[in-house]
Specification:
mainly alpha
């Protein structure tokens, strides 16, 4: 029972902590800024007041605090294998590089598919705002990805694997939860796919070192794009940059094939190194 219940509790804890942290920080901002209180009392624009309360920095701190507290919950539930979770000595770097290249092709392919789907991006303004501050950029590009790898790969997938759950069930479950938890239509299909790729790599490597590197690289590219392009990043089209939909579909298919081939070789050849005490 615990092999299913504990991962569910971990996800619920993460959602609750995010909400609680966001509200707490917003209340603190409200107390710190008397002008916002005056605007509320005078019947100011609710959307403008909410935007001021839930600024990029507030969201960033909410992500970081909730993530750290959730990792603490996972530790209390003994869902983290601290001996292996960040052990670089057990990594086969040769084949890990192959997995990173494979995922890069896969991510590029999924980005094309995501743009073609044209799903609503409910967090676009918030992510752009966060990318323009140091704490926001760190939360999206560095610390946030590591936190999410602790929670979804080590906490959810790893705990299920260590308790006898079928590997494909564990990989798929962690990918689905990872995607759904984003609660943003434009991100969900992308996050599920990337979560599945990261889940495969986690299963083979036995820890979150390589998955964290990939997650950081993926998010950092997005942060860099939003920081350097600003508002123009919202209008950037990968499909147009590739020369149109026909070219983009062809390139996307080639990238997907290369991802599958390289990941297959990685799956067959990767051997986890024994940990030396």
């Amino acid at each position: 029972m615990k092999k299913v219940l504990y991962p569910i509790l971990a996800v619920i804890a993460f959602v609750f902590m995010q909400s609680a942290a966001g509200v707490s920080i917003a209340v603190f901002e409200l107390i710190k800024n008397p002008e916002l209180i005056k605007q509320m009392k005078s019947g100011g624009d609710p959307n403008a007041i909410l935007n001021d309360l839930m600024s990029g920095d507030v969201l960033a701190w909410g992500i970081l605090i909730s993530g750290i507290v959730t990792i603490g919950v996972l530790a209390l539930l003994k869902m983290i294998d601290w001996k292996q979770v960040l052990n670089v000595k057990m990594i086969d770097w040769k084949w890990s590089v192959v997995s990173i290249i494979a995922c890069a092709f896969g991510i590029f392919s999924v980005n094309i598919l995501e743009e073609m789907a044209d799903l609503p991006n409910l967090m676009e303004d918030e992510f752009t705002d966060m990318s323009n501050s140091l704490i926001g950029a760190l939360s999206i590009g560095l610390i946030g990805p590591i936190i999410e790898e602790f929670i979804f790969r080590e906490g959810v997938e790893g705990y299920m694997l260590r308790n006898g759950v079928n590997k494909w069930v564990a990989i798929t479950a962690s990918a689905l939860v990872f995607g759904i938890i984003h609660l943003n239509p434009a991100q969900v299909p992308f996050a599920v796919t990337i979560g599945f790729l990261l889940g495969i790599i986690y299963y083979k490597t036995g820890n979150i070192v390589i998955t964290s590197i990939l997650h950081i690289l993926n998010n950092s590219v997005a942060v860099w794009q939003m920081y350097t392009m600003g508002e123009a990043a919202k209008d950037f089209s990968l499909i147009e940059w590739l020369g149109g939909q026909g070219y983009a579909v062809g390139i996307g298919c080639v990238c997907a094939i290369l991802c599958s081939v390289l990941l297959r070789h990685f799956w067959k050849a990767y051997q986890v190194k024994k940990i030396e005490n």
